[in-house]
Design goal:
The chain is α+β, with helices and mostly antiparallel strands and 282 residues long. 42% of the residues are buried. The protein starts with a strand and ends in a 10-residue tail after the last helix. The radius of gyration is 17 Å and the shape is globular. It has a seven-stranded antiparallel sheet with strand order 3-2-4-1-12-9-13, covered by helices on one side. Strands 5-6-7-8-14-15 form a six-stranded antiparallel sheet, with helices on one face. It is built from five helices and 15 strands.
């Protein structure tokens, strides 16, 4: 399966520290080698970089590192293909127009069956289960609401429709319209909310250390979402099974905690979690 990374904050923020640890899982500390993508919201626009080569060695990922783009919302993905060929059209994140906004979606998991899209106005370009699921979500929300719904309505709608898709397989995902970010946990998803007083953090994947106090302002708030924690000396929150978290301006706005994983479930996921070597998560 794949891995997810998201950032939601209250002022434009550089995601390079998190992204550089995350991309190492695409060929160095893990084997998610089947493409990567990252989307930065900028105003009403979205700047997306994708490559069907491994994120750890991709020149496109090198460009992201050099660019130092600042954004309120970022979604990134490294792929371990389970359905669909290794190709550019099958790399995440995916983007669609919803109520005159760009909605961006990335998925980690595998749906054994696909939703019905024959009468849908939204169709996949590639052949992944992930893009098909996103098209189903987009079409369903447009059919439900005649105009842009409130954030609370979006949250409730996603809690309603997600079980239809997660019943088909593993369905961890991150979704954003550039103002808010919604995360759903099926098996593995973690988040951390950083705010003052800012301190140091050490990356799991290469032991690189950063002192956030040298970069952050006192009123900054930054949420980082990741399949597995990216740092080993901070307190990450593990989302519960079937849990939802809705973030805006670097804060948790709505929360459906889901249920706690049993020790047996956690151990089973460690053994079968992606068909590749496990991460050394502290």
């Amino acid at each position: 399966m794949c891995q997810l990374l998201g950032m939601n904050c209250n002022s434009p923020t550089d995601i390079v520290f998190s992204f550089e640890g995350f991309r190492r899982r695409a060929g160095v500390t893990d084997q998610h080698n089947d493409g990567f993508g990252i989307a930065f919201f900028e105003g009403k626009g979205v700047r997306i970089f994708r490559d069907d080569r491994p994120g750890a060695s991709s020149p496109v990922a090198d460009l992201v590192k050099q660019y130092h783009i600042k954004s309120y919302n970022v979604i990134a993905h490294i792929r371990k293909a389970t359905r669909g060929t290794v190709s550019l059209e099958n790399t995440h994140p995916f983007i669609r127009e919803v109520f005159g906004e760009n909605w961006v979606f990335a998925h980690n998991g595998n749906l054994e069956t696909l939703p019905e899209l024959e009468r849908s106005h939204c169709h996949p370009i590639g052949t992944t289960d992930s893009e098909a699921a996103f098209c189903y979500i987009v079409d369903s929300i447009k059919n439900r609401f005649a105009s842009k719904p409130s954030e609370q309505d979006i949250f409730e709608f996603m809690k309603e429709i997600t079980p239809e898709l997660s019943s088909r397989g593993t369905f961890n995902y991150i979704l954003s319209n550039g103002q808010w970010m919604l995360a759903h946990c099926s098996t593995n998803l973690h988040y951390i909310c950083r705010k003052a007083p800012f301190g140091k953090a050490c990356r799991v994947d290469d032991d690189e250390v950063i002192d956030f106090s040298q970069y952050a302002k006192p009123d900054d708030r930054v949420v980082i979402i990741s399949t597995y924690p990216l740092t080993k000396d901070e307190q990450w929150t593990r989302m519960g099974k079937h849990g939802f978290a809705f973030f805006k301006e670097g804060a948790l706005l709505f929360n459906e905690p889901g249920r706690t994983f049993t020790p047996e479930e956690i151990e089973a996921m460690r053994i079968t979690a992606a068909d590749c070597k496990p991460l050394k998560v502290a």
